[in-house]
Design goal:
With 309 residues, the chain is mostly helical. Helices cover 78% and strands 3% of the residues. The longest helix is centred in the C-terminal third of the chain and has 49 residues. The C terminus is likely disordered.
Length: 309
């Protein structure tokens, strides 16, 4: 028991540290994107709006990433199951249900939908793409609409599913695999992943991978710059490894929740998701923001030269 507790605590600390790194990166991207947008408006350099056109979508992406990170911390046995905040098992179980609905139902799909929309924006015509002031609102609205069925599905799985299963004694033993979002572990509650949630997430990732590969293939046929081609390849690879995450979550029902094997599967799946999210944020948020700052410095240099002449 001591070894298991030590292992879960180490995983908890590492997870919190990694989420903090993602949060710091998000804050940097957020501040720079807002700074550049304000700089464009105050200086009147509207021609640079193309570089920072999807700034509101990028901000929404960072906010969703923050939300995802909070959920990943709350579901940890190290945080939720050790009585750090409360020893009420009902409250701990509700935290696990909230995590499934929030992260698997909204944060994960929303995060990668926004990344996919940012990638596809480059293929749109200027009057319809990021130069259109309505593009950000339409994109965020589309993300919310697409995520609603996923959010509803996860809510039905964790709230309605166990009640339906309990009506039949033969199926109630299977409820912990198909519907349950938590299980007892050493007198506390450990969060689990319902199999129905993993299957639905896997189906979503299959559709997302096909879409990203299609868009990425179109962009590769248009892009000549080797650096940009490498970025596209990295995005396709990062999206493709999301499917193994869903498989790992599905396999996590085999070992007993809270044990080393279960925590290892969940932690590896978290690493896969974090890597994919980090690659997407760096390529579609950080690099464009860095490019816009470079454009800002170029414009300011030209302005100073004009004044001197």
């Amino acid at each position: 028991m001591l070894l298991i507790t030590l292992f879960t605590n180490i995983i908890g600390v590492v997870t919190i540290a990694l989420v903090s790194i993602v949060s710091i990166l998000g804050i940097i991207c957020l501040s720079r994107s807002v700074h550049f947008q304000l700089w464009i408006k105050t200086r009147g350099y509207q021609r640079l709006s193309y570089f920072n056109g999807p700034w509101l979508t990028r901000i929404t992406l960072i906010v969703v990433a923050f939300w995802w990170g909070i959920g990943e911390v709350l579901r940890l046995t190290f945080v939720n199951g050790e009585g750090m905040f409360t020893s009420d098992r009902t409250w701990q179980a509700n935290v696990c249900k909230f995590y499934i609905i929030s992260n698997l139902g909204f944060a994960e799909p929303g995060l990668f939908l926004l990344l996919a929309f940012l990638l596809s924006a480059a293929l749109q015509k200027q009057e319809l793409g990021t130069l259109n002031h309505k593009w950000n609102r339409k994109t965020i609205r589309a993300m919310l609409i697409i995520c609603f069925p996923s959010l509803l599905w996860e809510a039905c799985v964790v709230f309605i599913g166990p009640r339906v299963a309990s009506d039949d004694g033969q199926t109630s033993n299977l409820a912990k695999y198909w519907y349950s979002a938590s299980a007892d572990h050493q007198g506390n509650v450990a969060c689990t992943y319902p199999l129905l949630s993993s299957i639905f997430l896997g189906a979503f990732y299959i559709i997302l991978i096909i879409y990203v590969m299609f868009v990425g293939g179109q962009m590769l046929s248009l892009v000549i710059n080797k650096g940009l081609r490498r970025r596209i390849y990295m995005l396709i690879f990062a999206t493709s490894i999301l499917l193994p995450r869903a498989a790992l979550l599905g396999l996590s029902i085999v070992p007993w929740p809270g044990e080393i094997a279960h925590e290892s599967l969940v932690f590896v799946s978290f690493l896969v998701l974090m890597f994919a999210a980090m690659v997407g944020i760096v390529i579609l948020v950080y690099f464009p923001v860095a490019d816009t700052l470079g454009a800002q410095e170029h414009v300011e240099m030209q302005a100073r030269q004009a004044i001197m002449l």
